[in-house]
Amino acid sequence: MLEIIPGSYLTVTPYGAWRAVARADDSIERRILLAILREATSPALSAELARTWTGETSTERALTPLLKLQETACLEAWSTPRMAPVGTLESTLPHLLETLSDTGQAVLADNMGFCLAMAGYPGETGEALAAVGADILSVAERQSAALSKLGDHLLDGWGNVDAAGISGLSFWPMHIGRTRLALTVSGRPRFNQNTFADLVWALYVRYGTI
Asked: What domain of life is recorded for the organism (predicted)?
């Protein structure tokens, strides 16, 4: 059973960050991840916070989903608090984006096609990819009922593939609060890095309550 250890500060791992944004389900585990991501400084674990996050009155029941998140490598604890990326999104996002692809190329756009940030692309190319990403978000939303029937075959990203089925360009819908964003990545995605968790953290601090 997970214990309350004084001085333990929780942060979301790269996998936990992906769990938080890939789909908009309302599971207890996802609500915990989102509550942590909305804080600009990693919160200190306490029984009171656990009960608040889960809505449980029993500390033991409140800690059970936290234990599950720990066992699935979605959460990690530190002896000192950590901070979300400092600075405006305009200054921090390009650096974070360039680490998320083996080519250093990525674009982040909103559902209206506005490019929030880009890395590694000429301006016109980035703007074009932002527009495509917005269209994919629209298709995913319109066809959500049909896509939900795919069950285990439902994947999280959309790819532009060649005749061999190899994707050189992929589009990843991200749910940040009520805001939907499209992350476009050239080459092989590298979402298993702390910079991906930092990207999601920075976005949730900004947009998580909207």
From this structure: Bacteria
Cβ proximity of 106 and 120 under 8 Å:
yes
pLDDT digits 0-9 by tens, 17-35: 999 998 888 899 999 999 9
pLDDT digits (tens, 9 = 90+) for 144-169: 665 565 555 456 777 777 766 677 88
Q: What is the mean pLDDT of residues 56-64?
A: 90
Contacts of 184 (CB under 8 A, 6+ apart): 106, 107, 108, 109, 129, 130, 132, 133, 169, 170, 171, 172
Can you say how many angstroms the Cα of residue 95 is from the centroid of all Cα atoms in its chain?
16
What is the pTM for the complete model shown?
0.89
- One DSSP character per residue, 101-143 reads BTTS-EEEEETT--EEEEESS-HHHHHHHHHHHHHHHHHHHHT
Q: What's the maximum distance between 2 C-alpha atoms anywhere in the chain?
A: 55
Query: In the chain, what are the domains?
Result: 9-78 (no CATH), 89-207 (3.30.450.30)
Write phi, then psi, for 101 (nearest 5 degrees): -145, 145
